[in-house]
Specification:
Blueprint: H1 5-44, H2 53-66, E1 73-80, E2 87-96, E3 102-104, H3 111-115, H4 122-130, E4 134-136, E5 154-164, E6 167-177, H5 185-205, H6 215-232, E7 236-243, H7 246-253, H8 255-273, E8 277-283, E9 286-292, H9 296-312, E10 315-317, E11 320-322, E12 326-332, H10 339-355, E13 361-363
Parallel strand pairs: 12-13
Antiparallel strand pairs: 1-2, 1-6, 2-3, 4-5, 5-6, 7-9, 7-12, 8-9, 10-11
Helix pairs in contact: 1-5, 2-5, 7-8, 8-9
């Protein structure tokens, strides 16, 4: 027996409404994917511009939270091997406000307590160790997630690795606070793509062996340091350092040994200057130190301390013990001096150290 006309029509209308809802949802997904594609293109545009890890991290988080991932906060942890052990070099947080605006989170959070991941524990530790992404649908019951001390707990979390070559140098994560949400396959692919583009940006601005800012980024950092010194009336100095007879070391011991020497020198410099200066790896065996808030005398003392420590170091590479020495040149910034003029003066002072017999530090003389 056929359905009554009114009942049959109602069924068809309901079917059409379901179909329209499905098409509407599909259109929204297509629109979201298109918007995410534009976001990725905008991030990729940063590759040609000098950009540091902090600015890159904020750009990634802004796009991750603005890209419809249902997360209300995010963070990026970057671990760089520039110290005696792998430590947090950068920890950036951001939150999505009620008005839909992404802003940096200025709240103080102790990183080890928050993630407990540096030594391989917690979700960040897992991603750092394995290079695999991870999703915790329910942080309370997740076997890897480590709770942290704070007024609000995370409900769900998604993390993706930030890589440079074959090395995992950081973790991009987005999370929901106090509620559980579902991160879809497309959400995971989007955040993974953001991390991948971030890796390209890192490669364009940081040296592969030492993970220090390269010459491309260094030029911008010097200009920024000069602008800050001009604005605040503070001293500024620049040191150029290179390894004595590095070509011979490379020829005699090979590229692997040379790379280990470069990495070791980067760690020594990082230990000596701490947070008060910016280290850069210009190219080859040539480094630079941007001494913010330090005059010529102070910068020379630090550079000499680095030289003396390097001279005493013994570097072990595959059972071979090597000694290296360095030369350095230091130049102070003066009012009206351009970035190019300052770098030229530091280079001239470094060449003077070479001419004086190497293994010494010279200062620029007017």
């Amino acid at each position: 027996m056929a359905d009554p006309p009114d009942q049959s029509l109602a069924f068809e209308i309901a079917s059409l409404q379901d179909r329209l809802s499905e098409l509407s949802e599909r259109a929204k997904r297509v629109e979201l994917l298109a918007a995410r594609g534009e976001m990725l293109r905008s991030l990729l545009g940063l590759v040609t511009a000098p950009i540091g890890l902090d600015r890159m991290s904020h750009a990634i988080l802004a796009l991750a939270l603005d890209g419809g991932t249902v997360a209300d906060s995010g963070s990026i942890f970057i671990a760089l091997p520039t110290g005696e052990r792998k430590e947090a070099e950068l920890f950036v947080k951001a939150v999505l406000t009620a008005t839909g605006k992404v802003v940096p989170d200025t709240g103080v959070t102790e990183f080890p307590r928050f993630f407990e991941g540096v030594e391989g524990e917690g979700i960040v530790g897992y991603v750092l160790a394995t290079g695999d992404g991870y999703v915790a649908a329910d942080c309370d019951s997740d076997p890897i997630y480590k709770r942290f001390t704070g007024p609000e707990q995370l409900g769900s979390l998604m993390a993706q690795p930030l890589k440079y070559g074959d090395n995992v140098i950081g973790v991009v994560s987005v999370h929901s606070t106090g509620r559980r949400v579902e991160y879809t396959k497309h959400d995971q692919e989007f955040v993974r793509a953001l991390a991948d583009v971030g890796s390209v940006v890192v490669g364009a601005n940081y040296d592969r062996r030492t993970m220090l800012p390269n010459l491309h980024l260094m030029d911008d950092l010097v200009k920024r340091a000069i602008a800050s010194a001009e604005k605040n009336g503070r001293p500024l100095s620049l040191a150029y350092i290179d390894i004595d007879d590095f070509g011979e070391l490379n020829d005699d011991h090979g590229h692997a040994a040379a790379d280990e020497v470069l990495s070791r020198l980067a760690r020594v410099m990082a230990d000596e200057v701490g947070q008060k200066a910016i280290l850069c790896h210009r190219h080859g065996d040539e480094f630079a130190i941007i001494f913010r808030d330090e005059n010529l005398h102070e910068a020379r003392e630090t550079t000499e301390r680095i030289r003396g420590r390097v001279e005493k170091e013994t570097i072990d590479v595959e059972g071979r013990r090597m000694k290296v020495k360095i030369s350095g040149g230091v130049a102070p910034w003066e009012t009206g001096l351009t970035a190019r003029q300052l770098t030229d003066r530091a280079d001239k002072a470094n060449r003077a150290a070479k001419a004086a017999g190497k293994n010494c530090v010279k200062c620029h003389e007017n």
